[in-house]
Amino acid sequence: MKGPVGIWIDHEKAFVVSIENGEEKIICIQSGVEGHFRLSGGSRSATPYGPQEVASERKMDERRKHHLHRYYRKVIHAIGDADRIFVFGPGEAKTEFGKEIKKSKELSCRIAEIEPADKMTERQILAKVRDFFSRD
User: Which of 44, 62, 85, 88 lies 20 to 30 Å from 117, alpha-carbon distance?
Assistant: First the structure.
């Protein structure tokens, strides 16, 4: 994508809004990441040295972290070579995504702003991106 790009992102999905020649396009990218949950305890075998089926929280957290990393890379691939990037959204996803962008030498200098925002409809996202880039 060329031109300015706005991204509303959370851990479930990302809306990528590009503005080219005054025309706005919106793409939705689903993450497929499982919800974050805590396991209580685990289960043990009745025999003293039998197999232990203890669910490892660390393993689940690592799996989630790697899945989020792939999701963020997919969004970065979708924005391509955008001129300027505006990232906004609820929760931690926007800052995690910002850190992922900063790992890329080409895109790190193109981040215009990272801003908190609530859950929004597609029309609200389009309006916010349009307003942000019209201020410049």
Answer: 62
**Do residues 117 and 86 make contact, with C-beta atoms less than 8 angstroms apart?**
no
Domain boundaries, the chain: 5-36+54-134
Q: Which of 136, 27, 130 is nearest to 76 (CA)?
A: 27
Instruction: Answer for the pair 132, 113: CB distance below 8 angstroms, yes or no.
Output: yes
Q: Is 46 helix (H, G, I), strand (E, B) or coil?
A: coil
Q: Report whether CATH 3.30.420.60 matches the domain 5-36+54-134.
A: yes
Distance set, CA 33 to CA 10, 114, 135 (Å) = 11, 22, 35
The whole-angstrom separation of Cα 75 and Cα 14 is: 7
Number of continuous H segments (helices) and E segments (strands) in the chain: 4, 5
Helix (H) or strand (E) holding 10: none
pLDDT tens figures, 11-70? 999 999 998 888 899 999 999 887 665 555 555 555 666 555 555 677 888 888 999 999
